[in-house]
Amino acid sequence: MIDMHSHILPGLDDGAADWEQALAMARVAVEDGIEEMVCTPHWVPGKYDNDKGVVLQKFADLEQRLSAENIPLK
Questions:
Q1: 3, 29, 46, 65 — which has fewest CB within 10 A?
Q2: Dist. CA 73–CA 31, nearest whole Å
Q3: How many angstroms from the chain centroid is the CA of residue 20?
Q4: Is the pTM of this model over 0.90?
């Protein structure tokens, strides 16, 4: 199953607050049968000013952390 809407990238919006919470969310997703997840952080001017570079870096960091923790989520 693919989760098409998630706020797993930490510190970007009202989703995961930190890496501990993001990895916990990933573990729960895998337990629920999710194999892939689309990261969809909010972008709201003045509230969530997430530029492309920051989002891409958080995504790369997430991939590394998932691998290091042996969490099978793409």
A1: 46
A2: 10
A3: 11
A4: yes
Copy the structure tokens of residue 67. Answer: 């691998």
Position 68 scores a pLDDT of: 98
Q: What is the mean pLDDT of residues 58-63?
A: 98
Q: How many CB atoms lie within 10 A of CB 15?
A: 18
Q: What 3-state DSSP class applies to 15?
A: coil
Task: Please check whether residue 59 is in contact with residue 39, taking contact to mean a CB–CB distance below 8 angstroms.
Answer: yes
**pLDDT single digits (tens) 10-57:** 999 999 999 999 999 999 999 999 999 999 999 999 999 999 999 999
DSSP-assigned states of every residue in the chain: -EEEEE--STTSSSS--SHHHHHHHHHHHHHTT--EEEE----BTTTB---HHHHHHHHHHHHHHHHHTT----
At 38 the three-state DSSP class reads strand
